[in-house]
From TrEMBL:
<dbReference type="GO" id="GO:0005654">
    <property type="term" value="C:nucleoplasm"/>
</dbReference>
<dbReference type="Pfam" id="PF13086">
    <property type="entry name" value="AAA_11"/>
</dbReference>
<dbReference type="GO" id="GO:0016787">
    <property type="term" value="F:hydrolase activity"/>
</dbReference>
<feature type="domain" description="DNA2/NAM7 helicase helicase">
    <location>
        <begin position="795"/>
        <end position="1102"/>
    </location>
</feature>
<dbReference type="GO" id="GO:0000398">
    <property type="term" value="P:mRNA splicing, via spliceosome"/>
</dbReference>
<dbReference type="InterPro" id="IPR041679">
    <property type="entry name" value="DNA2/NAM7-like_C"/>
</dbReference>
<dbReference type="GO" id="GO:0005524">
    <property type="term" value="F:ATP binding"/>
</dbReference>
<keyword id="KW-0378">Hydrolase</keyword>
<feature type="domain" description="RNA helicase aquarius insertion">
    <location>
        <begin position="706"/>
        <end position="784"/>
    </location>
</feature>
<keyword id="KW-0007">Acetylation</keyword>
<dbReference type="InterPro" id="IPR027417">
    <property type="entry name" value="P-loop_NTPase"/>
</dbReference>
<feature type="domain" description="RNA helicase aquarius N-terminal">
    <location>
        <begin position="19"/>
        <end position="415"/>
    </location>
</feature>
<keyword id="KW-0507">mRNA processing</keyword>
<feature type="compositionally biased region" description="Acidic residues">
    <location>
        <begin position="1386"/>
        <end position="1403"/>
    </location>
</feature>
<feature type="domain" description="RNA helicase aquarius beta-barrel">
    <location>
        <begin position="493"/>
        <end position="658"/>
    </location>
</feature>
<keyword id="KW-0747">Spliceosome</keyword>
<dbReference type="Pfam" id="PF13087">
    <property type="entry name" value="AAA_12"/>
</dbReference>
Length: 1445
């Protein structure tokens, strides 16, 4: 817990605080007799709880948690009463909601008209430096930043954009404005229109308009005043520093989005803010480190290669042209103002070529010859400063230093952003790893800004998009590396020895001391580059370790990543370490460098590459050859040679390795860098939406020029009634039919949609339907097509239709709505409608991909066209191998089987020769022997039909059978082959037999390439590039293998992304570019994204990147925020309708499928449990609620014991263990529950283990009949306040959901309100009916026959379970005694012999039933254990954490 303080108020704090008491009187939702609104309450709270405490975070959190904004501030907001404390209070609450990552603008939607008045007051207070303190203005500045970043919200955008229009250029000085309008007729026209409108405004309206237009420039000038107040030396106000940092953050955000950048950029440049910041005292002080980092980000976007007005990326040629024009303007102005006789140096400058004068040093040297007045005249002539300065009308101070700096920065050549990017190293160094302004720790509070890029909803260009994602992905990987390095170094216990050398007092699994390190090769740079082409080094380590650890170290293979470190501790040997002390200083970490493994060296010094079996090593010394990062090596050597710094590569004394699966980061970063260095061609129909601009609906299929009017839906519809019901808003007509009232068609169907919507709403859209006959696939049952059996809903049908059409389809699938079935049907329909096209399937996890792939395997898709890439293929629940080599083996086996069929065909026809030797000979056989016979048969049937029509021959159905040439070949089919009863039926059979034969030879023709390719590698590549039609992979695999796929010439036409809302933005983007463009165009035709943004987002470990940079935002979620048309599936079939009510409020019109009320399991109540869902209030256990043995490792023993007792009760009632899962919101509680289960019941055959004990996050995408959920927290709400996590937790259960938590803590949480209201409407004690047994007999909704028992707490539940257990044992013993008595005296006489026989039979049946029950119980205990996914390392780490705590 060192280094972290408890920010959030605890439950006890909330209950006892004065704010809670005030809230109970004025705005608590449960108080029906609230007092009337009083603005003095707001003033008192602001003065006492906010301003007086300097906006203490706990006071702010208490107010926000009490729903101060939603219940009191905004509902009563009125401009006449909205004084200064009122406005500040609203701004503070909005900022707090953003800090806690909960919806902030929802309440403003109820009263949007008032937001304009409120925002105007915020603007005025921001500029009031007399009456509003700097701390308060900083709070308002943060609010302003949130507003500018929320332009997708209508009420925010309508107000904020008034400061971002062309009219804001009125704040420019006249010469600059004239210069910008002079070259653009369109802008001049708009400007004249603005002037005409202004003339029609009265004085008040014009004054208000001018205030909005000049606000941003006035805000910058206000910032410059604050910046000037900071002294060069001495004490410095923290408020001044924080305000300046927040202002630079605002500037970055304004420049990083086109809507805010377009007109503002020139305004910012006209104030010369960057030049002032460069020369400020803060920039030179130690306290200005973060300020300088943010300033560099402002500079990056200030010079970003984008056309502000058009919004298009500037090419290198355009950038050069702009630069040359700028330099020429400078030279012309100097030539005009400074005669040669007075300034010969300047004349030479004016006449020189651009390459000689556009460097900073050349510019500075030339400008140093000018006096301050000359520089002012030059700056005025270049429109950098207003003419009034030259004329003395403005009292502005422009020193020579400032003017020179301004001119040099404005006119010097700017290195291309791509060159700067390519020069960056891929591996993190010590400077980045421990820079708290960038690499913030996991305890990020959200109270300070950071020098990090943000993922908003819009980007400037594709380059900007890739750069931001690259930086954040690199930083997230760096954070994980930092945690591992700190852990391993701490385990190594480095101390300073008596001789000053580093001595290691401990050991670590992933870390070893180095014996030697040496650079062995530095290759010459490529032409035009300065960095070496490659740098190789040898590392010698000693692996005198335990066998398993030695095997791990010797298992390092090519492309694995290792880190080299220099540790120079200062602490004497044996000194205890203190976790609260700075890590770097305590452990003496000086250098960290990354490297990529090439391989171990053998005894002859050769690299051992790509070994399958582990090589034999001699001794304990191992030499490892590695590649160093060339950019980093060049930077280090430059620093050593030019600055005299220490040679880093002579100091390494430690080596750290990572697990192979954790080292994917380098391959992903290289992929992103490759994308930036190639012409990144995104489909034209999606590029603007990807960047966040243009019409969000422009990529919808209804707007696509190449949309298909007629679609073959194949087996999508079950029958005619299903088809009609699937289009409730359409008029469905049979093509060519007249009276259609009683007509119907049998599937499959061809549907033709109208080209455009009707002109009036009253006119129904007509769909033309045509049926067709499925082609006969021959006489063998195994050849018959598999058909769909899912009765898709109308919304699902619309999603399938959209997926079949070209364009972007975004499908939102709430829990249990069948989004996987929709995806599978889309894939099937695309496969059959467009057989020449190839489809890529991408998911976030192997589990989801395998679930989807297993359903695809059961479709009517030839399995030779299926391919599963990646290691997750091994987990597919099938004996077939769908990997690349597995598919090659299948093709080769299938080839042999088909050639055997060809041989059988040859024998049946009596053809001589070896025609079944290869696919080529089989092709000749088909062409000359098979096809000719079939054509002869067709001709004979045609002639016979003509002869019958001409009455030259008598009609005979047997003619088909008699003429059919392949009777012998089909002798193994069901006989008779032709029934001879119906001409059409027999002809269809003949066509089906021909389809079967033709399919054999078509497959052999496809397999012919596998005969020509001799190596397995070549065959797998051909399979990937040509043969496979449906290729499935995870997003991580796509990122890792993109370069390889592109080099192979991989092509695809469609991409389907499942779990899209859980995939990182960049990992969603990379799969779109797994192919090179054709003729400058991307051939992608369809992009189907399926997910649910209301459930959990991608996992980001670092909270700073998650909260501040919004890295958890998926591309799917961003599209939804942008307003891209979505199709939301609206019928769920997973849970009882009553359980669905706990989460359906989050979705628009989420209903229930009929089977949720009609299937037997839904019609019965849960045995032994009165309610189908309950929230059970759990008190402290021995005075203890939640505990935290280690940071964020939360546990709650009372809840753990209660949940396990409930599980035991359910097992005693008779519930199968595999139908029960236990979930929790924290890893610590998961481990605690598992421990309790192991101690209480795991080895008891009557109880056993549940199906799963895991976290809510891990269980997303899964379900079970009964869920027991532990909320854990008793002090603060915790991360269940994230509504997305709540939705996942509420939606995992089908039949029963039982939640254990502290009700008083959660019931006041605004975000959880809709669910909590339903949960708290039922008893908060668990209600049980122990007399009932499973399977249930009581109808759903009926009360138990006997009075239910209310369980007051955990102890009472344990007593009930103990009692029931004893009763069960006693009953079993009685049954056993009765059986033993029956066995001991089998010949006992009874008065009624027939009654004796009946009784014996009943006892025997009971005995068998008991034995069977024991077997079932034993199976139920053992089966989940065998199937349980164990993670030994994670469990060991958790156990170690618990032992340490």
């Amino acid at each position: 817990m060192a280094g972290r303080t408890q920010l959030a108020p605890t439950f006890r704090d909330i209950l006892d605080d004065s704010i809670t008491k005030v809230a109970e009187v004025y705005w608590a939702p449960y108080n029906q007799n609230k007092k009337e609104f009083d603005v003095k309450v707001i003033e008192l709270i602001y003065q006492n709880d906010l301003l007086h405490t300097r906006f203490n975070i706990k006071r702010t959190m208490l107010l926000e948690f009490s729903q101060y904004l939603e219940r009191y501030l905004w509902p009563n907001f009125n401009p006449p009463t909205s004084n200064y404390p009122y406005v500040m209070s609203v701004a503070v609450m909005v900022n707090e909601k953003f800090r806690e990552a909960v919806p902030a603008w929802d309440c403003f939607q109820d009263n949007p008209k008032q937001f304009g008045h409120f925002f105007e007051q915020v603007m005025k207070m921001l500029l009031d430096n007399r009456n509003v303190s700097l701390l308060e203005r900083m709070i308002l500045l943060i609010f302003l930043d949130h507003s500018f970043n929320s332009l997708e919200v209508d009420c925010i955008r309508d107000v904020v954009q008034q400061t971002l229009l062309l009219s804001s250029w009125i704040s420019l000085h006249s010469s600059l404005l004239d210069e910008k309008l002079k070259g653009n007729e369109k802008l001049r026209k708009y400007w004249r229109g603005i002037q005409k409108k202004d003339k029609k405004l009265d004085d008040v309206e014009l004054q208000k308009a001018q205030f909005f237009r000049t606000f941003l420039k006035n805000l910058i000038e206000s910032f410059l005043q604050v910046l000037e107040e900071i002294p060069e030396t001495g004490e410095i106000s923290k408020d001044h520093v924080s305000y300046c940092e927040r202002f630079m953050e605002l500037m970055v955000d304004m420049l990083a989005r086109l809507p805010t950048r377009r007109w503002f950029h020139l305004i910012m440049q006209s104030t010369h803010m960057i030049a002032h910041a460069d020369l400020s005292a803060l920039a030179r002080r130690r306290e200005g480190l973060l300020f300088n980092q943010l300033k560099e980000m402002v500079k990056f976007y200030d010079t970003f290669e984008v056309d502000d007005l058009k919004g298009t990326a500037l090419t290198d040629r355009e950038n050069n042209a702009i630069h040359y024009d700028r330099i020429h303007a400078l030279q012309k102005e100097i030539f005009k103002r400074f005669p040669a006789e007075d300034h010969p140096e300047l004349r030479r400058f004016a006449m020189s070529n651009v390459g000689n004068v556009d460097k900073p040093a050349a510019l500075r040297n030339a400008l140093q010859f000018m006096q301050e007045d000359d520089l002012i005249h030059l700056a005025v002539g270049l429109h950098l400063i207003p003419e009034s300065v030259e004329e003395g009308e403005i009292d502005a101070v422009f020193t020579k230093e400032f003017l020179v700096h301004l001119l040099v920065n404005t006119y010097s050549r700017r290195p291309p952003k791509l060159d700067q990017f390519n020069s960056q190293p891929l591996y993190p160094t010590e400077d980045l790893l421990w820079d708290e302004n960038i690499m913030n720790t996991e305890y990020y509070t959200g109270l300070q800004c950071l020098a990090l890029p943000k993922l908003g909803i819009q980007f400037l260009t594709l380059h900007d998009y890739l750069v931001r994602n690259y930086n954040l992905f690199r930083l997230e990987s760096t954070y994980e590396i930092r945690l591992e390095i700190e852990d391993q170094i701490a385990r190594m216990k480095p101390w300073c020895g008596d001789d000053g050398a580093c001595v290691f007092g401990g050991w670590a699994r992933m870390c070893l001391p180095l014996q030697t390190f040496s650079i062995v090769e530095v290759a010459r740079p490529l032409l035009g580059e300065v960095r070496p082409r490659s740098v190789r080094a040898d590392i010698v380590i000693d692996v005198d370790l335990r066998r398993e650890m030695r095997n791990e170290w010797e298992g390092l293979k090519k492309h694995d990543i290792i880190f080299l470190m220099t540790v120079r501790p200062k602490l004497p040997y044996g000194t205890p370490f203190d976790r609260s002390v700075n890590f770097l200083h305590q452990y003496g970490v000086e250098y960290v460098r990354g490297a990529e493994v090439e391989g171990y060296l053998d005894e002859e010094g050769r690299v051992i590459e790509d070994w399958i079996e582990k090589p034999h090593f001699v001794g304990n010394q191992r030499t490892l050859r590695v590649w160093l990062d060339t950019n980093q090596y060049h930077s280090d050597m430059t620093s050593t040679l030019q600055k005299g710094n220490e040679d880093v590569y002579k100091t390494f004394n430690m080596m750290f390795r990572r697990k192979p699966k954790e080292n994917n980061f380098k391959a992903v970063l290289e992929t992103i860098r490759d994308l930036m260095n190639t012409k990144c061609v995104v489909p034209s129909w999606i590029q603007n939406i990807l960047l966040g601009y243009g019409d969000p609906a422009m990529a919808h299929y209804t707007r696509m020029e190449n949309q298909k009017r007629t679609l073959d839906f194949r087996d999508t519809f079950l029958d005619w009634h299903h088809l009609r019901a699937s289009f409730p808003d359409y008029k469905v007509e049979i093509e060519g039919g007249e009276d259609q009232r009683h007509q119907s068609l049998d599937p499959p169907y061809l549907l033709t949609f109208p080209p455009q919507k009707p002109e009036t709403d009253d006119e129904a859209v007509t769909i033309s339907v045509k049926s067709y006959t499925k082609p006969n696939r021959g006489p063998y049952p195994q050849s018959q097509p598999k058909t769909n059996s899912v009765p898709f809903t109308p919304t699902q049908i619309e999603a399938i239709r959209a997926g079949m059409q070209p364009g972007l389809s975004v499908i939102v699938g709430p829990p249990g709505t069948g989004k996987t079935d929709v995806a599978v049907q889309i894939i099937s329909n695309i496969y059959h409608n467009f057989p020449e096209q190839r489809t890529v399937i991408v998911t976030h996890s192997n589990q989801a991909l395998n679930q989807l792939f297993e359903k695809i395997m059961h479709l009517d898709i030839d399995e030779r066209h299926l391919l599963r890439l990646g290691h997750g293929e091994e987990m597919l629940e099938t004996e077939k191998d769908f990997s690349r080599y597995g598919r090659v083996n299948y093709v080769l086996q299938q080839r042999l089987a088909l050639l055997k069929e060809v041989n059988r065909m040859q024998q049946s026809l009596g053809v001589k020769g070896d025609v079944s030797y290869t696919c080529e000979t089989a092709g000749h056989f088909y062409l000359y022997q098979i096809l000719s016979r079939w054509e002869k048969f067709e001709e004979e049937i045609k002639n016979f039909q003509e002869a019958v029509l001409e009455k030259k021959e008598e009609f005979s159905v047997a003619k088909i059978g008699n003429s059919f040439p392949f009777h012998v070949f089909f002798a193994n089919a069901a006989q008779p082959l032709f029934k001879g009863e119906d001409w059409e039926e027999d002809l269809d059979i003949a066509n089906g037999c021909w389809w079967h034969i033709k399919n054999i030879f078509e497959q052999l023709e496809e397999f012919r390439a596998f005969e020509l390719l001799r190596t397995g590698l070549d065959r797998t590549r051909y399979l990937l590039v040509k043969e496979a039609k449906i290729i499935a992979m995870t997003c991580t695999h796509a990122a890792l293998k993109r370069k390889e796929l592109v080099e192979l010439g991989f092509k695809f036409d469609n991409i389907i992304m499942e779990e899209s809302a859980q995939i990182l933005e960049i990992e969603t983007f990379i799969p779109l570019l797994l192919q090179n463009p054709e003729d400058g165009f991307n051939r992608l035709k369809r992009w189907i994204m399926i997910g649910d943004h209301h459930q959990l987002p991608p996992v980001i470990k670092n909270q700073a990147f998650q909260k501040y940079s919004n890295m958890e935002q998926s591309l799917f979620t961003r599209f939804v925020r942008l307003g891209v048309p979505i199709i939301q599936l609206d019928m769920q079939g997973r849970a009882r309708p009553t359980i669905c009510e706990l989460y359906n409020w989050r979705y628009e019109k989420l209903g229930n499928l009929p089977h949720t009320s009609t299937w037997p399991e839904f019609r019965k109540a849960n045995a032994g449990l009165v309610w189908d869902y309950q929230l059970i209030d759990v008190g402290d256990f021995n005075g203890v609620g939640e505990s935290e043995p280690s940071p964020y490792f939360y546990q709650n023993l009372a809840e753990a014991e209660y949940i396990v007792a409930t599980f035991m009760y359910m097992r005693l009632v008779g519930y199968p263990a595999e139908k029960i899962s236990i979930l929790t919101t924290y890893n610590g509680q998961k481990h605690l529950i598992r421990d309790v289960i192991e101690n209480r019941c795991a080895n008891n055959p009557m109880i056993g283990r549940p199906a799963k004990v895991t976290t809510v996050d891990r269980f997303q995408g899964q379900q079970n009949d009964f869920i027991l959920l532990s909320l854990v927290r008793t002090k603060t709400v915790g991360h269940i306040r994230d509504v997305r996590r709540l939705i996942v937790a509420m939606s995992r259960a089908r039949l029963g959901l039982y939640i254990f938590g502290r009700i008083g803590l959660f019931q006041n949480c605004f975000e959880l309100g809709p669910s909590l209201r339903l949960l708290t409407a039922r008893p908060t004690n668990l209600m049980v009916a122990p007399e009932e047994t499973y399977p249930p007999a009581r109808p759903f909704g009926k009360a138990p026959k006997e009075r239910p028992i209310s369980i007051p707490g955990m102890s009472a539940m344990h007593k009930l379970v103990y009692k029931m257990y004893l009763e069960k044992i006693e009953a079993m013993e009685k049954d056993k005694d009765a059986m033993m008595k029956l066995i001991a005296d089998p010949n006992e006489e009874f008065e009624d012999e027939e009654e004796v026989e009946d009784e014996d039979q009943e006892n025997n049946e009971a005995n068998v039933a008991d034995v069977q029950a024991d077997e079932v119980i034993q199976n139920e205990v053992e089966e989940p254990i065998s199937k349980k996914e164990r993670q030994p390392e994670a469990a060991t780490e958790a156990a170690e954490q618990m032992d340490e705590s």
